[in-house]
Specification:
Blueprint: E1 6-11, H1 19-33, E2 37-41, H2 45-49, E3 55-57, H3 60-63, E4 85-86, E5 92-93, H4 96-105, E6 110-115, H5 117-130, E7 134-138, H6 154-175, E8 178-183, H7 190-198, E9 203-205, H8 213-225, E10 231-236, E11 248-250, E12 256-258, H9 261-273, E13 277-281, H10 293-311, E14 317-322, E15 325-330, H11 331-336, H12 346-353
Parallel strand pairs: 1-2, 1-6, 6-7, 7-14, 8-10, 8-13, 9-10
Antiparallel strand pairs: 2-3, 4-5, 11-12, 14-15
Helix pairs in contact: 1-10, 4-5, 6-7, 7-12, 8-9
Bound molecules: 6-O-phosphono-beta-D-fructofuranose.
Length: 360
């Protein structure tokens, strides 16, 4: 069984479906296979920053029912870079030493960090600075982490967006409307292109291919001329024009974020084509609820593989899904390789081959 270990696990960055399935797999493998202790750290690095550090021992009983539970039982945060942490007085403070001290105070032998590229970059910096034995597990609905075909959460988001298109299809046809579905993904159009093809969209707009509003309107008119009385459009939140123009929303506090492109396009279409147009913004529904079978499978395989890496003493690595296998790569390699939709890749070619309009 090897030497006894006490390992920590945390979830960092935006949540998604499948995180609890990873936690469950890690606890099962660490406890049952190796006889180790697993500490669940609360609220990502905030739990290590707190005094006493916020962590509890996770028993099999606690995680057994988690396979289908959405969110993360540990909590998470996507704010507060520990190297420039926002303080109450408005200043920014480097609090990395407190987090590192928290790890050592808990007497951890290793830490499993589940995160996207931003979180993994921060965790790695902390690990290098503070002698933390880190293993990374990729998660993000955006699926933009290089070197892994799957990040946890992506498949569920695609399922949800596809189901939304399936539902919109019928109401669009019944009312002879243009229906726009706005999806997340930040600067990567993976959700839009995958769900768009699977859900039979007529137009797919992704950040990797600049769009022209005139051409979208032309496509709608062309469909009308051939007797198709409706049009289904799926648009990624961060699409841009050839001039690089994006649409963002600013709240009453002056904070901006992606959002609003669906309504913007609807206004343009109504003005130029005169056809009734409605918008659905999927938002955080894409991140919530029960994970798809594929996400649960990948989450479970990643959890087991991460524990096995620790058993082998292999740190500073991230588990990956490549060619139907779980492998691992140095975290630096994963972070360095941002993965956008390839404008000449299979999915774009498939969409074009199906006569789906991509905005260019
Ligand atoms: O990175 C995941 C993601 O869901 C993006 O697709 C989206 O733009 C963003 O997070 C939303 O962040 P928040 O939860 O802070 O609104």
């Amino acid at each position: 069984m090897g030497e006894h270990k006490r390992i920590g696990i945390l979830t960092s960055g935006g949540d998604c479906s499948g995180l609890n399935a990873v936690i469950r797999a890690v606890v099962h493998c660490a406890v049952n296979t190796y006889g180790w202790e697993v500490l669940g750290i609360r609220q990502a690095t905030l739990g290590l920053m707190a005094r006493p550090p916020q962590a509890t021992t996770l028993e099999i009983d606690q995680v057994d029912s988690l396979l289908t539970a959405g969110g993360t039982m540990l909590g998470t945060t996507n704010k507060g870079d520990p190297f420039a942490f926002p303080m109450a007085d408005g200043s920014l403070c480097d609090r990395s030493a407190e987090i590192i001290a928290g790890y050592h105070e808990l007497n951890l032998d290793a830490l499993i960090g589940i995160g996207g590229d931003g979180s993994l970059a921060i965790l790695r910096r902390l690990a290098q600075q503070g002698g933390i034995n880190l293993v990374g597990i990729p998660k993000t609905i955006d699926n933009d982490i290089g070197v892994t075909e799957h990040a946890i959460g992506f498949d569920t988001a695609v399922n949800i967006a596809t189901e939304a298109l399936d539902r919109l299809h019928f109401t669009a046809a019944s009312h002879s409307r243009v229906m726009i579905l706005e999806v997340m993904g930040r600067d990567a159009g993976h959700i839009a292109i995958a769900a768009g093809i699977a859900g039979g969209a007529d137009v797919i707009l992704i950040p990797e291919i600049p769009y022209t509003i005139d051409h979208i309107c032309y496509k709608i008119k062309e469909r009308q001329e051939t007797g198709k009385n409706y049009c289904l459009i799926i648009v990624s939140e961060a699409v841009r024009t050839h001039d690089g123009e994006i649409v963002t929303m600013t709240n009453r506090l002056g904070q901006s974020r992606y959002g609003g492109i669906g309504e913007y396009l609807a206004d343009q279409i109504i003005q130029r084509v005169g056809v009734e147009t409605r918008v659905t913004v999927l938002g955080h529904i894409q991140r919530g609820g029960t994970a798809s079978p594929l996400d649960r499978l990948v989450a479970t395989a990643f959890g087991v593989a991460a524990v096995n890496l620790i058993a082998e003493g292999k740190y500073d690595r991230m588990v990956t899904w490549q060619n139907r296998q779980v492998l691992s790569v140095p975290i630096t390699e994963a972070i360095a390789q941002y993965s956008a939709v390839d404008p000449n890749g299979t999915l774009v070619k498939t969409a074009r081959g199906m006569g789906i309009y991509l905005g260019d």
